[in-house]
Amino acid sequence: MTGPNKITNNQDLETMSHHTNHDAPEFTRRFVNLADERLGAEAIFATDDFFADKQRMLQTADAIFYPDKYDDNGKWMDGWESRRKRVEGHDYCVVRLATSGRIYGVDIDTSHFTGNFPPAASLEACYCPDGDPAEDTTWIEIVAPIGLRAGVGAEAHHYADVTAEGVFTHVRLHIYPDGGIARLRVYGRPDRDWSKMASSADQVDLAAMINGGVVLTWSDAHYGNPNAILAPGRGINMGDGWETRRRREPGNEWLIVELGHPGEIEKIIVDTCHFKGNYPDRVSIQAAYVDGEKDKSLRARSMFWQTILPEQKMQADHIHEFDASVIAKLGPVSHLRVNSIPDGGISRLRILGKPAKR
């Protein structure tokens, strides 16, 4: 990437994700977006999506706006948009979450919907582990009707805490009476039977998004979204990863990962896919078992965590695998500090091991 703020295509816009907004509620950093289509979430029904397909609402990248883009039905919008309702009632959309989980907060985002946003919205959830909801499914309201604003800047994000207990597999977004929603993000903790995983002989990716791994905080993310390093698959381009600015002072860049579950690490994979002239020279990882600490405390304390992976030389566009011969045996850990020395881009991080028994 050249120039300080160059954005060349839709995928590069992922680097501008609101995940890097530390003014957003803590649940946007502490938990996984269970409605992320990259993880497998799917919009399975909408009463109407005449102007903009319902699945667009679940895209990972922030919504974008093309002033001169139209299709056969009218103005092309990046999100879900129903037609203007001329009868009683309201529109809604049902989303199958990527995995079942406990929900802690949501973001109903109206970005770029300025004259066509719904005045209000609410959210329900249900638990259907064996399939999709039916007519007799019981839905629980998890976000009461809230007023929505025009989709301009930070005002487009409508955050709401969720206090409903229990595990859910689907959500139903109601908009009153019609209009457009750019993105729906449902932040929660994936429901995993860690006791079974702990007793299995197979290694588990303790840091994977789908297993609840999240990036809590970082030193810099000028070009890339830090949470992308925990996403499934390999990076699709240089915009699909964590990339820092060029560091012009002593030290190095870093980020802190909270594992989906504490565990003993047996293998570490650092992938610099697509990073060819901007990969880190070296990478090291520190680790600790942390219970109940907050983000601000973690930033300071992480400098003194024990080293689990000493500095390792990186290569361009390469999968680096490290096994027990170089990984320190520290017992169960819950958090990692990944050091990018001195700076650069990492596409994916895999932390394989055995979940700790509780």
TrEMBL record:
SUPFAM superfamilies per the UniProt record, alphabetical: Galactose-binding domain-like
InterPro entries: Allantoicase, Allantoicase_dom, Galactose-bd-like_sf
Region (Disordered): 1-20
UniProt key word Hydrolase: yes
Ranges annotated as biased composition (Polar residues): 1-14
Presence of keyword Hydrolase: yes
E.C. designation(s): 3.5.3.4
EC top class, as a word: hydrolase
Domain of life: Bacteria
Record's keyword terms, sorted: Hydrolase, Purine metabolism
Gene Ontology MF annotations: allantoicase activity
Annotated metabolic or biological route of this protein: Nitrogen metabolism; (S)-allantoin degradation; (S)-ureidoglycolate from allantoate (aminidohydrolase route): step 1/1
Domain Allantoicase: 40-190, 212-355
Matching Pfam families: Allantoicase
Catalytic activity, as annotated: allantoate + H2O = (S)-ureidoglycolate + urea
Entry-linked Gene3D superfamilies: Galactose-binding domain-like (2.60.120.260)
Family named by the database record: Belongs to the allantoicase family.
Protein name per UniProt: Probable allantoicase
Species for this entry: Thalassospira permensis NBRC 106175
